TrEMBL record:
Chain positions found as 4-aspartylphosphate: D54
Organism: Acetobacterium wieringae
Residue intervals of the Response regulatory domain: 5-121
PANTHER family named among the record's database cross-references: CYCLIC DI-GMP PHOSPHODIESTERASE TM_0186-RELATED, CYCLIC DI-GMP PHOSPHODIESTERASE VC_1348-RELATED
Protein name, entry field: Stage 0 sporulation protein A homolog
One Pfam family linked to the record: Response_reg
Transmembrane segments: none
Database matches in PROSITE patterns: HD_GYP, RESPONSE_REGULATORY
Domain HD-GYP: 148-371
Domain of life: Bacteria
Length: 373
């Protein structure tokens, strides 16, 4: 078993000899004739488990030495016991304030010295153990959070891929729109109207939820979803149901999760499921219009959740710039003109302004996706 290391700092050779003889059988001893020697040794990485230090020394005294030692956070946990003559006028309060843990008086009484040294070493070992345990727990919590995040993200990608598998004409649509959503949200974060709401956590939640916006299409019959042409009015009404199909499915899943667990766990679950709450809003309302003429509920203006207003523009941009069975891809400049014309009509004016400022970013994302025909 490795011995604890004790540093003795004293300019008196007799004191060094006495303490070294007393402590050597049980501990590894390093002796220093000045505070400067101790500090130089510690800077080189020789860190003792405990320090016995005289207060009155030529040059740098014990108070100054301890003050310098404590400036390095790595040395905060080293217990320092001051050595002082029985009749010396010392400022004990100052010593404790600087971080000393105890005083030992000269002439030394072996039993007292050993008792004090062992007691403070045991305390140090206990603190070190707790620190190591806390660090392990923090690392374990972080590891599990990363693991849960990976599982969550993988699940989202599975859902997104499932939708794309059923709707071959929108390959990579969910990934492109997710990027468009992030671009707009991060631009809106700089807007005074949204700066108090769109913090980094909220933006991440919206971006994470975005790929689920069309998951309700799973409930649309193949004859309509995969129709190689434009939908008639009746078919279009059926297609519009995908908003509520997706939103209702998410709401049902959230409610079942919460009701199926103990009440004391619900707060943590609400936090963990917050991105699904955002996904529900996006699914339900990404086809609403700023002027109130959208679907499924004909919400108007700010009645529409912000995440859905952002998704609405991202969705339209991608739909117009890609090929569909019933249309060719629009030129980018024509799509930009259309979106600007719909400012205050189909789209939130602030969302349109954010888009206008980030058109080049949109084009970059688009160019990395599926080739246009």
């Amino acid at each position: 078993m490795k011995k604890d290391e004790i540093a003795i700092v004293d300019d008196g050779p007799i004191n060094l000899m006495i303490l070294k003889k007393l402590l050597s059988p049980s501990f590894l001893i390093r002796a220093y004739k000045s505070g400067a020697e101790l500090l130089d040794s510690v800077k080189k990485g020789i860190q003792p488990d405990l320090i016995l230090m005289d207060i009155i020394m030529p040059g740098m005294d014990g108070y100054e030495t301890l003050s310098e030692l404590r400036k390095d956070p790595d040395n905060q946990g080293i217990p320092v016991i001051y050595i002082t003559a029985l009749d010396s006028l010392i400022d004990e309060e100052k010593g404790f304030y600087l971080g000393a843990v105890d005083y030992i008086t000269k002439p030394f009484r072996p039993g007292i010295v050993l008792a004090r040294v062992n007691a403070h070493l045991e305390l140090k070992h206990a603190r070190d153990w707790l620190k190591n345990q806390n660090e392990w727990l923090e690392a374990e919590v972080k590891r599990r959070m990363v693991e849960n995040q990976l599982i969550q993200d993988t699940t989202l990608n599975v859902f997104a891929e499932l939708v794309e598998t059923r709707d071959n004409d929108t390959a990579n649509h969910v990934m492109r729109t997710q990027n468009y959503v992030r671009i707009i949200a991060e631009r809106l974060q700089k807007h005074k109207r949204f700066e108090n709401h769109l913090n980094a956590e909220v933006i991440e939640r919206i971006v994470k939820a975005a790929p689920l916006h069309d998951i309700g299409k799973i409930g649309i019959p193949d004859a309509i979803l995969l129709k190689p042409g434009k939908l008639n009015n009746e078919e279009y009404e059926v297609m519009k149901n995908h908003c509520k199909i997706g939103g209702n499915a998410i709401r049902l899943a959230i409610n079942k999760t919460l009701s199926g667990n103990q009440a004391e766990n619900k707060m943590g679950e609400v936090t963990a499921l917050s991105f699904l709450e955002e996904a529900e809003k996006i699914m339900n309302y990404h086809h609403e219009r700023w002027d109130g003429k959208g679907y499924p509920e004909e919400l108007y203006g700010d009645e529409i959740p912000l995440s859905a207003r952002i998704m609405a523009l991202a969705d339209v941009f991608d739909a117009l710039t890609t090929v569909r069975p019933y249309k060719k891809a629009w030129r980018v400049d024509a799509v930009v003109d259309y979106i600007l014309e719909q400012k205050g009509l189909q789209f939130d004016p602030d969302v349109v302004e954010a888009f206008e400022a980030e058109v080049e970013s949109f084009i970059q994302v688009m160019s990395q996706g599926q080739p246009r025909e």
